[in-house]
Amino acid sequence: MNEGRDPFVSSLASHLNMRLTRLAEEREIPLERLLDKSVELLLEYMEDNELINYYVKLNNVEAINKNNDSFSKAGRSLRKTSLKTLSYHG
């Protein structure tokens, strides 16, 4: 039945199922309702996490571009200063 499945995934699924079953019994909530809500919350979390990751990546790209621009300007400024110094001393 679990042929081809990762043993860790199988044991994790079994463990989660046991915990959710126990929680449903303790709180007197229908298991199906608890499972549905668990999946819903997990999907919301994953979507929020993806959105956060997207914004972090976007901000990182903007920061990298600003840094590259600053380095480029600094490099041009240094070259101009070096040329002025060389022509002054030369």
* Residues in helices, as a percent range: over 70%
What form results from the Cα inertia axes?
rod-shaped
DSSP E strands, number: 0
Distance between the termini: 84 Å
Low-confidence stretches: none
Number of helices: 2
Strand residues, percent:
under 5%
Which structural category do the helix and sheet elements fall into? mainly alpha
Mean pLDDT, to the nearest integer, reads: 85
Oligomer kind: single chain
Question: Can you tell me about this structure?
Answer:
The protein has 90 residues and is mainly alpha-helical. It is 89% helix and 0% strand. It contains two helices and no strands. It has helices spanning 7-27, 31-89. The longest helix is centred in the middle third of the chain and has 59 residues, at 31-89. It is rod-shaped, with a radius of gyration of 29 Å. The termini are far apart.
List the helices and strands and how they pair.
Elements: H1 7-27, H2 31-89
Give a short synopsis of this structure:
By secondary structure, the chain is mainly α. The protein has two helices and no strands.
Name the features.
single chain; 90 residues; mainly alpha
